[in-house]
């Protein structure tokens, strides 16, 4: 079976079965040894990891990776706590390259849920006591 072009020109593996998928990948690696070595060397290169992280944080939040790390050291802007996993919050409507602030994971998840249900929640709160 032949691999087919997928999203963004990447090739999708032809097998859903993990064993067949492994066999296909190993056969490709044997047939394309030089290309595989280049890919592996690029993956193992630590500067490439840093460049990729820097590019990703620039694209997502408009920040360098160093700024991204520094921001995550701040406490949550909603609850004031500093959790193990801090998130850079962004407004999906504004698009990539922007951020609103730093939130702990709990507040970030709850804020996302609230944004999705805001109209319903506000309508309920306006009802008041019956």
UniProtKB/TrEMBL annotation:
Could you tell me which Pfam families the record lists for this protein?
A: Endonuclease_7 (PF02945)
Checking InterPro entries in the record gives: Endonuclease_7, Endonuclease_7_sf, His-Me_finger_sf
Q: What is this protein called?
A: Endonuclease VII
- This chain's source organism reads Candidatus Sungiibacteriota bacterium
